[in-house]
Amino acid sequence: MLKLPVMVVLDEAYIEFADRPSRAEWVMQYENLVVLRTFSKAAGIAGLRLGYSICPAWLMGELWKFKQPYNVNVAATVAALASLRDLDYLRATVEKLKAERRRMSDALRAIPYLTPQPSEANFVLCQVSGRSAKAVKHALEQQGILVRYYSKPGLDNCIRISVGKPEQTDRVIEALRAF
Question: Fold for domain 8-85?
């Protein structure tokens, strides 16, 4: 049996939204590093569940041993290839989302019961104070606005708001101000 070293896994699902470089090149320096990436966030194809890893060459032989045949469907393949054909458009879209994330964070800071956390993703996490985050989530749902709600250690009484188009930001901010 092959004895494997302790592996370090670095998830870069949101790296395109971060103001820091990818660490993928580190794989060439560290034989125990695996970097995970996805097309879900920046390429906007989350429902197709397509990702990849950047890993040392020695690990590929081990991974091929348990890879299932046909584990990537045609729709995911077509969508990923289309996103890779126009990287300039993809990068421009990410930059627009980052600018909108900053604008949304600023607007959320002005709402007294919300404390937005710094974000390097395509969403903003807000701590809710003085009221139930679950009630805020349900009130937004009544207006057709969907946010994620968290109630667990480290994320107690929080909502997560995805970044979208400016008009979507305006709508969620207006709804949150009305509560």
Answer: Aspartate Aminotransferase; domain 2 (3.40.640)
Residues 6 or more apart whose Cβ sits within 8 Å of residue 112: 130
Q: pLDDT tens for residues 43-74? A: 989 889 999 999 999 988 888 888 888 888 89
pLDDT band at 4 (very low <50, low <70, confident <90, very high): low
* pTM for this predicted structure: 0.87
Task: Provide CATH 3.90.1150.10 ranges for the chain.
Answer: 94-178
In sequence order, which residues have a C-beta less than 8 Å from that of residue 15 and are 6 or more positions away?
22, 37
For the chain, residues classed under CATH 3.40.640.10 are: 8-85
3-state secondary structure of 30: coil
